[in-house]
Design goal:
The structure is a single chain. The protein is mainly beta. It has a single domain, classed as Porin, CATH 2.40.160. The chain is about 10% helix and about 45% strand. The strands form 5 sheets. It has an 18-stranded antiparallel barrel. Strands 13-17-16 form a 3-stranded mixed beta sheet, with no helix packed on it. A two-stranded antiparallel sheet has the order 1-2. The radius of gyration is 23 Å and the shape is globular. The protein starts with a helix and ends with a strand.
Length: about 525
């Protein structure tokens, strides 16, 4: 195997362009997820929410944020679309609003291409070795994402982007069964691809896009619209984790008030990978979200996704306002649940079928810069989601449980080179059913410490843990920004807990990983 692996590693390393210088909480199968966004902790609100300044004409004075969303955009820098500075009294554009921006230096580089079609993107190599038994290479991946954009008519704009992934680990090892390689060896994905235009006081975005409603750093509580690639649990950066959806989005601005309507005609669903298959030798996807199965090893049938139709579309509304420095928002969203519910067979009680049911969610967010620290909180009530139970007399193995998820977090800087984020989160199960294997009140916390080191090195340690039981994830990592637009990352993912725990279920997936990325 090593003889086959070395040439592949060399191929992926050499394929990087040699140019230039350089906890989410989400329910899947009834589990609460917390994700590491992969960002530094903030020294200010702008640093916290990765706001890159919009491109301005030479000599133009910087404009103040026009709305609360301009202050709190959450998308990673690599997704940014360069924007002109807002006119006085006019809200900043939706790209600043939703943070799908690239770093400021990329905007400057592209300013000279204003008359043409700039091409931007990144190439990334990723390697992961699972050192828990059974030891194996779990990732040897090359990823290329490219995008371009332009303008049309009176203020219209378009964007086109796509991504290709190739993971030869499925050719270099027989650890996984053939179905995993068939689905995960090569990935082609249309990323953000849309047109922007305005009609009267309303701005529109139509096409494949991100819709981000959450405010918390690294949490998915209020981020109810996003669809996720969960094949590596919550470990990838948000830029990789989120999957754009086909949507029609309309926005209205008036001073510090912002209204947003979203319609998703073709509902998207989380990518969960391939389960273990007793009919084929080899393992399933490392982080497949297996359901509770008191009758033995679960056998998973083919996932059933709803057919396209008006009955299966998603719709939501979000209202927000900046009041006295407080960023406040409220939303309502009804959708086909992007996370699967595993229905148990009535006779073969270890056989499950992943399906998607309709749910509705309502909630809100707040954020406030209090000078020495930033306070943020969000909450969401979910109605209609079903959870697996251990009771074998239950005909389909699930029970409906309405839930309230909420979180509060603080971001501050103990010193000039150290940043700290602390968050407490809780899920409350109404009409609690003891057989779901979770307590009525499920509590947890996360701590993220970032430290700037000499010679362009950075160190981060993330701990996410349950407070109800010993169930945790530890993620130390080091980042080396050795040249402009280049970065190398080295880290560990360590899981610990009971087999039924959020993190303990992946106790055998402890891994060491490395990444090399070039932005352009």
């Amino acid at each position: 195997m090593r003889q086959r692996l070395v040439p592949a590693l060399g191929f992926l390393a050499c394929s990087i362009p040699l140019v230039g210088h350089a906890g989410q909480i989400e329910g899947i199968g009834g589990r609460i997820f917390v994700a590491d966004k992969g960002i530094e902790l903030p020294v200010s609100r702008n640093a916290l929410f990765e706001l890159a300044p919009a491109a301005r004409d030479e000599g133009e004075k910087p404009a103040r944020p026009a709305t609360r969303d301009d202050l709190f955009a959450l998308e990673p820098p690599a997704e940014k679309t360069p924007q002109p500075a807002p006119e006085p009294g006019v809200p900043a554009t939706r790209d600043a609003l939703f943070g799908d921006e690239r770093p400021a230096e990329k905007q400057e580089k592209q300013a000279g291409d204003a008359q043409g079609m700039p091409v931007y993107g990144y190439f990334q190599s990723e390697f992961a070795w699972t050192y828990s038994d059974p030891r194996h290479w779990s990732k040897v991946l090359g990823r290329l994402e490219l995008g371009t954009e332009g303008r049309f008519g009176q203020g219209g704009k378009w964007k086109l982007s796509g991504r290709v992934d190739y993971n030869p680990v499925y050719d270099l090892t027989d650890f996984y069964h053939s179905g995993v390689g068939d689905k995960q060896r090569l990935g082609l994905q249309l990323r953000e691809t849309y047109v922007d235009f305005a009609t009267g006081d309303w701005e529109w975005r139509v096409g494949r896009q991100h819709v981000v409603w959450g405010e918390m750093v690294g949490l998915f509580f209020a981020d109810v619209v996003s669809v996720k690639d969960s094949r590596e649990f919550i470990l990838p950066d948000f830029q990789i984790l989120r999957i754009p959806q086909w949507a029609v989005r309309s926005e209205y601005f008036s001073g510090d008030f912002h209204a947003e309507l979203v319609w998703i005609p073709f509902a998207g669903y989380d990518e969960i990978g391939e389960p273990f298959d007793p009919g084929r030798p080899g393992a399933g996807t490392d982080f497949y979200p297996y359901p509770l199965s008191p009758a033995g090893m679960p056998i998973i049938r083919k996932e059933v996704k709803p057919a396209n139709g008006l009955d299966h579309t998603n719709f939501g509304v979000r209202l927000s306002r900046l009041v006295g420095g407080w960023d406040l928002s409220g939303f309502y969203y009804t959708s086909m649940d992007s996370a699967p519910t595993f229905l148990r067979d009535a006779t073969a009680q270890n056989v499950f079928t992943p399906v998607h049911k309709r749910i509705w969610q309502a909630g809100g967010t707040l954020a406030k810069d209090l000078g020495t620290f930033v306070l943020k909180a969000e909450a969401v009530y979910t109605d209609g989601r079903q959870f697996n139970v251990t009771n074998l007399t239950d005909s389909d193995g699930v029970v409906a449980q309405n839930t309230l998820d909420w979180a509060v977090g603080l971001d501050f800087n103990p010193s000039s080179d150290t940043r700290l984020n602390t968050q407490f989160f809780q899920r409350v199960y109404f009409d609690h059913e003891a057989d779901i294997n979770f307590d009525r009140f499920e509590n947890g916390f996360s701590i993220l410490v970032h430290r700037d080191l000499p010679r362009s090195w950075e160190a981060d340690v993330l701990l996410i843990s349950s407070l109800n039981r010993s169930d945790w994830l530890l993620r130390p990592k080091a980042t080396w920004k050795f040249e402009r637009d280049w970065r190398a990352v080295f880290g560990l993912d360590i899981f610990k807990g009971p087999p039924t725990g959020i993190f303990g279920q992946y106790d055998a997936n402890d891994r060491v990983y490395a990444e090399l990325r070039r932005d352009f």
